[in-house]
């Protein structure tokens, strides 16, 4: 205790000296704080605040038949400002419209209360000294308010947020209770929204198109109703000025800035009109202007009735004044929960008052971030013009212990427990699922969206089409004028081999686009907007027109430049065979991309696989002469190059007759069997095409398994955990 007291006195003296009028600037607070009872004017300047303790007086009652809580509270054990400077700077108004499109009436959202009691989360290997990521946390959030979870890096902010939303990974274990409207039942689909820190958007769509397709994937009902909720989401997030602009950010397309993109990701969740909205780091990678605009927009959203709970690492003074309640974490320990102004008083009571001219959030993180100890070690022998670095001379470990001990014995902690007791003593209206779009609807939406995206982004298939045409022209000019003599057979076999193998190898250009599709799927699947089957089927149907366009254009150029047999049925088989080859190659690329999730390793693996398949295709050595282990089994049998080339050669040479001298002639099968192994059966080419079709579906089945039981295991694990919690509560 003597150590704690000495450190507190040291910090108090350094803070007062640092903020002394004689040593710094005239005394003036620059805290942005809420005016009591005001939601429409969220921030204002305050000068010379005088703290007054007020008694906790919370009254809560549930409306009969309603799904929200009416509450009237004066801040529990929180300070209030007795004087407001009449000459303070005006507060920026909360935007009512969408940002310049005229006044629009946005429907209210029925919020829900959420409370958590003794919440502890453990994850093996997450912490160096303990598996507990969150330790005995208590708190609550009301409709129409913004509750922020703040703390330094690795303090448990995101873990606590995911625990409240029921989105912990299967490796995590949660202890304690979470109540929604007084009930311990889990939140059903559509009753809450969760926005990840990093979200995947589709850059080739406009904001309105992106939100509309998202609404089609999420909501049942008629198209007109979905258009109305999309417009509501656009208005709520102040995106009217950007509704018809491309999101951008892919294929060198210019689009929205990071602030607007972040608001689009939040608007995607608003189309469901959730009661509770969880946001992980809404200010992630935003500058000060974009951050303030984001928080003012979220304040407007909260004023519509939605319950907002989000994490934040650090904020400016203006942004800090918009918060209603703050949960301060450090190393998983709750150092404070309550009103934002009460947090300032809490630090002051603990002996760490916020210096004048310093942002409250900066001051909080300075006191509880242990990384500052390293800075102290670096700067302890340095001096500035006014002496020692007074802003970095506090032991954070001591500060954390002091703040935690002060909070546990404070009236703020007691008022939190009282409020949680009142929230949980009687169950309110349970949240209901809002229904999902049908599987057929989702497949149709994903197919149409894929067609639109693939047609707009040149890196999906247009680039590959150009590469295929260049390759085909090169091969065609290289092998042109072969004629139809017996001596041209070996050269024509080489031309077919080069065409199939190199065209398949050029498919590597589609790896980045496929990886982006997988990331978009993961983002949508995490919120149950999509599934593995509908994603694969939609992607497959959407890619067919482009793959067929590539196959028919490349095949026609190659077929006539090399001078293959002039027969329409043989030409159509050539086109279909190459189309199946592209389908197989697309499935192979998709499966490799699912395994690696990285452009470099996916490209390297795909090149290696294609090289092995080319070696085992039977051109460099006849398949029957290949070594049985490894090369024949399994490489020769899994090489789709082998089946494609064999089918094309059977299509070209079966039924063909070559003259040997003036009297003798041999069949096409006899002419080619020395250079490539084919079957004399005329139906063999159709069996090869069936094998290619089976391989195309086989690779996509592998992708389904990877998505369903690999990438999507976190989603299914969360759903299983929710069902277990629901059954236990019953």
TrEMBL record:
What keywords tag this UniProt record? ATP-binding, Membrane, Nucleotide-binding, Transmembrane, Transmembrane helix, Transport
Q: Where in or outside the cell?
A: Membrane
Q: Where is this chain compositionally biased, Low complexity type?
A: 1-28
Question: Where does the record place Polar residues bias?
Answer: 71-89
Record's GO cellular component terms: membrane
Query: What's the protein's topology in the membrane?
Result: Multi-pass membrane protein
In which broad location class does this protein mainly occur, judging by the first location in its UniProt entry? membrane
Q: Where in this chain does the record put each ABC transporter domain?
A: 114-356
Segments crossing the lipid bilayer? 461-482, 494-515, 535-558, 570-593, 599-618, 689-711
Pfam families (UniProt xref): ABC2_membrane, ABC_tran
Q: Which InterPro entries match?
A: AAA+_ATPase, ABC2_TM, ABC_transporter-like_ATP-bd, P-loop_NTPase, Plant_ABCG
Cite the GO molecular-function annotations of the record: ABC-type transporter activity; ATP binding; ATP hydrolysis activity
What domain of life does the UniProt record list for this protein's source?
Eukaryota
Q: Where is this region: Disordered?
A: 1-31, 71-101
Among PANTHER family, the record links this protein to: ABC TRANSPORTER G FAMILY MEMBER 11 (PTHR48042), ABC TRANSPORTER G FAMILY MEMBER 3 (PTHR48042:SF12)
Q: Which family does it belong to?
A: Belongs to the ABC transporter superfamily. ABCG family. Eye pigment precursor importer (TC 3.A.1.204) subfamily.
Name the record gives this protein: ABC transporter G family member 3
Write down the species.
Answer: Noccaea caerulescens (Alpine penny-cress)
């Amino acid at each position: 205790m003597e150590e704690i007291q000495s450190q507190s006195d040291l910090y108090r003296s350094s803070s007062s000296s640092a903020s002394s009028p004689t040593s710094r600037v005239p005394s003036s607070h620059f805290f942005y704080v809420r005016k009591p009872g005001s939601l429409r004017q969220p921030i204002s300047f305050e000068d010379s605040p005088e703290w007054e303790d007020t008694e906790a007086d919370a009254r809560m009652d549930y409306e009969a038949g309603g799904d929200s809580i009416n509450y009237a509270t004066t801040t529990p054990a929180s300070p209030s400002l007795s004087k407001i400077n009449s000459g303070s700077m005006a507060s920026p108004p909360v935007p009512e419209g969408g940002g310049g499109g005229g006044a629009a009436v946005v429907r209210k959202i029925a919020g829900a209360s959420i409370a958590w009691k003794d919440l502890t989360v453990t994850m093996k290997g997450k912490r160096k000294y303990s598996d507990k990521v969150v330790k005995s946390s208590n708190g609550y959030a009301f409709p129409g308010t913004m509750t922020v979870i703040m703390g330094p890096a690795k303090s448990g902010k995101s873990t606590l947020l995911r625990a409240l939303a029921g989105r912990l990974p299967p490796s995590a274990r949660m202890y304690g209770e979470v109540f929604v409207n007084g009930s311990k039942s889990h939140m059903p689909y559509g009753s809450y929204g969760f926005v990840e820190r990093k979200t995947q958007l589709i850059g080739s769509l406009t904001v309105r198109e992106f939100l509309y397709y998202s609404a089609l994937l999420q909501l049942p009902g008629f198209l007109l109703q979905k258009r109305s909720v999309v417009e509501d989401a656009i208005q709520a997030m102040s995106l009217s000025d950007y509704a018809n602009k491309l999101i951008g950010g892919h294929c060198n397309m210019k689009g929205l800035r990071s602030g607007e993109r972040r608001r689009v990701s939040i608007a995607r969740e608003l189309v469901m009109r959730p009661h509770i909205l969880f946001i992980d780091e809404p200010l992630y990678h935003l500058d000060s202007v974009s951050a303030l605009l984001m928080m003012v927009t979220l304040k407007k959203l909260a004023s519509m009735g939605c319950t907002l709970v989000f994490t934040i690492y650090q904020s400016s003074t203006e942004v800090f004044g918009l918060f209603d309640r703050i949960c301060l974490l450090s190393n998983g320990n709750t150092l404070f929960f309550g009103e934002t102004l009460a947090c300032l008083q809490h630090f002051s009571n603990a002996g760490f008052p916020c210096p004048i001219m310093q942002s409250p959030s900066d001051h909080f993180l300075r006191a509880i971030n242990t990384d500052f100890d390293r800075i102290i070690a670096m700067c302890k022998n340095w001096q500035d013009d006014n002496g020692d670095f007074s802003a970095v001379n506090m032991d954070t470990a001591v500060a954390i212990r002091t703040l935690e001990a002060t909070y546990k014995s404070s009236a703020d902690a007691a008022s939190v427990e009282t409020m949680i007791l009142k929230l949980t003593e009687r169950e309110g209206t349970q949240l209901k699922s809002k229904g999902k779009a049908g599987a057929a609807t989702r497949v149709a939406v994903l197919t149409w969206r894929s067609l639109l995206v693939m047609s707009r982004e040149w890196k999906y298939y247009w680039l590959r089409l150009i590469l295929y045409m260049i390759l085909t022209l090169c091969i065609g000019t290289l092998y042109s004028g072969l004629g139809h003599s017996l001596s041209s057979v070996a050269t024509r076999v080489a031309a077919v081999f080069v065409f199939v193998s190199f065209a398949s190898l050029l498919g590597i250009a589609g790896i980045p686009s496929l990886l982006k599709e997988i990331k978009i799927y993961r983002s949508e699947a995490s919120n149950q907007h999509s599934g593995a089957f509908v994603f694969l089927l939609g992607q497959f149907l959407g890619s067919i027109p482009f793959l067929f366009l590539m196959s028919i254009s490349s095949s026609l150029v190659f077929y006539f430049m090399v001078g293959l047999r002039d027969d329409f049925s043989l030409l159509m088989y050539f086109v279909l065979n190459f189309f199946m080859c592209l389908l197989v190659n697309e499935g192979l690329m998709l499966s490799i991309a699912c395994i690696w999730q990285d452009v470099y390793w996916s490209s390297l693996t795909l090149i290696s696989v294609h090289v092995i398949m080319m070696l085992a295709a039977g051109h460099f050595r006849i398949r029957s002469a290949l070594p049985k282990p490894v090369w024949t089994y399994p490489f020769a049998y899994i090489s789709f190059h082998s089946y494609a080339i064999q089918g094309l050669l059977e299509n070209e040479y079966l039924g063909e007759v070559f003259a040997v001298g003036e009297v003798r002639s041999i069949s096409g099968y006899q002419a080619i069997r020395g250079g490539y192994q084919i079957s004399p059966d005329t139906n063999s080419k159709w069996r090869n095409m069936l094998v290619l079709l089976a391989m195309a579906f086989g690779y996509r089945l592998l992708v389904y398994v990877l998505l369903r039981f690999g990438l999507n295991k976190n989603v299914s694990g969360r759903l299983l955990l929710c069902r277990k919690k629901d059954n236990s509560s019953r």
